[in-house]
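Reply to dn_fold:

You asked what the input looked like. This is it:
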Amino acid sequence: MSACVPARAADSDHAERAHPPHSPPPGRRRFRIAGADVSASIAVFLIALPLSLGIALATGAPLQAGLVAAAVGGLVAGRIGGSPLQVSGPAAGLTVVTADLIQHYGWRTTCAITVLAGLAQLGLGCLRVARGALAVSPAIVHGMLAGIGVTIAVAQLHIVLGGTPQSSVPDNLRALPAQLAQLHPAALSVSVLTLALLLLWPRVPGRLGRVCRMVPAALVAVAGATAAAAAAGLVLPKVDLPSWRNHALAGLPEGPVLGLAAAVLTTTLVCSVQSLLGAVAVDKLASARPGPAQVSRSDLDRELLGQGAANIVSGSLGGLPVAGVAVRSSANVHAGAVSRNSTMLHGVLVVIAALLLVPLLELIPLAALAALVMAVGIQMVSLNHIRTVTRHREVLVYAVTTLGVVTFGVLEGVALGIAVAVGVALHRLTRTRITHDEQEGVHHVHVRGQLTFLAVPRLSRALHLVPQGADVVVALDGSFMDHAAYETLHDWQSTHTARGGTVEITGRRAGVRIAEPAALASGHPAEGPEETDASEADCRCRPWTAWRNHQCERPQELMRGISTFQRNTAPLVRAELARLAREGQRPGQLFLTCADSRVVTSMITSSGPGDLFVVRNVGNLVPPPGAESGDDSVAAAIEYAVEVLAVRSITVCGHSGCGAMQALLDSHPDGARTPLRRWLQHARPSLERVGGPGGEPPRLAGRAPTDAAERLCLANVVQQLEHLRAHESVARALREGTLELHGLYFHVGEAQAYLLTERDGEQVFERVRAMDLAM
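and this is what came back:
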């Protein structure tokens, strides 16, 4: 019946339930701001205020321009942009670009260039090309930021020492010895105090540290240095905010057309790429944040429109260029913001400060702001980014981009980085090694690298070295093969097998049979160099599709799975398993977990053969020594792992939705003594830990357990670790310091692991996070 009710009638019925007939009619919906947004906006404002002044100082622009850009970034980009939690404003990544523009064209023309860059961003947003900006290599982006950071740090070092910076990094480096010979003690002392507070404030230990970290370090550093300078009576250059009546607005652009076009292009490129990459990074931070409330993902095209509108308004009002700012955005996310109201409210607070706090702002020494910006520049050279590009063999692209930005400028450095990145990609594409050798009568042709048309002549020469009728193994150690290479390999295989030879082709990285590229792209594997099994002729399944709950036309049977292993996986692991068979097993840890079919230990731990000694049982239980269970298998496995295998750690892993824990909650003391109930007696102490005064149950960091079953799962991990410590072999190894115990909780629905830790004497399961590669 309910399905036949019209939508309008259903809405009316819902309205009557929400507002009874005798209650007054609902008024207009009031605008409300969540408390989390209010607190987050205050935290972001306290960071943005000193940084905006410092970035304006570093560019040589009027200091009020930084406040204008911060306010416009919060109000305009915050309202229109597509990333609800990203905070926009004057960014350190734009410092070098803006300083160069001011030096060449003056302030009013720089504002006009900012407006034109905003119009260009609006055009790019309307063309919906935002995703294309993400195609820029991360090594180029990180190298650009590192180069800008070096430029900022070297320039601000002169102000820290009490001098005046030069126009370029080489000039600043040449002038540094003379500047060191003419130190200004007062400026240096204020700068050192600022840097010390920036470094030490987040590292205050204990509960006092948690309270201290509620106040941003940047604000504490600038405020502390300002108070110290005033108390000591130091005579220093200070912030000078002239009357807003004299504030310079944008003028008509003056200068050569090509130079202005290059300036607009540079500003557009840096603003857009930094904002879009920042939006992607904010999405990652927000999705990793605990709690049920999730913010919608960024609309990158709308974000580009919002940034363009903000730059138009900021440039028109005499403000600095605007872009998404990583420091303020991450602070906004970590402070708990839930909507764009936080960003907008922070812009309102900047406006209030710019109008009412001018006397306080004019007490800040310029040396304190210079030290703050210098620290930001140093942080832009990220060791994590350097390790990442080194691991991906892109350190050359990173280094060339960084040196190019430092030596020539941002646009020139990025162009150099793109050219080197293209060269590296072409080099990798053409660097293919093909070898041929014979072992025990079997000919091996090994292809290392991508197999393209450029490598076809070498491939043909290697294949023709194989005698007719010989047994051949062709190993393709690469992830790509184009049509020309496929045709060459396929034709040779057909000819060789027709003359009585055998051919086995393996793809060591892909782990699947080689197929024509077009067939793989369409999802229909064509007959490739390796013959298709008759039982799979009409099946489109891949090795992992069954695990992903894919429904094939025929059920996945055990023998078919074994056959797939023998054909696809066995060639990849045969050498490693042969080594383990010769040397014996030497696992590093004992992993004790539940027998639940959804808990795949090798997947959770990214382990392979020989890495883990695994014990699985119902409920991941460890019976204490001497328990009357009639089953010593777990104790025997523990003794064998510790005494014979000498494992270095033991992990007890529980999981969400554990049927054993639910059965324990549903059981009755007077129930039948089945084998399952007898076994679950070893989890009775876990039940007492949750419900009784015997112990404090552990908790999950960031959120409360969803129900009693999850609370019991968490407590059970802690309880089984206590049972584990009671075993003699474990206790002895712990005393000798040769063994570590770990507790792990795996949430199946979230695919998220939680590690048991001690926090202020309390047992807490902390979320294990992936490494953040974002900017």
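Confidence is low (pLDDT under 50) at residues 1-27, 508-555, 771-775.
Hope that clears it up.
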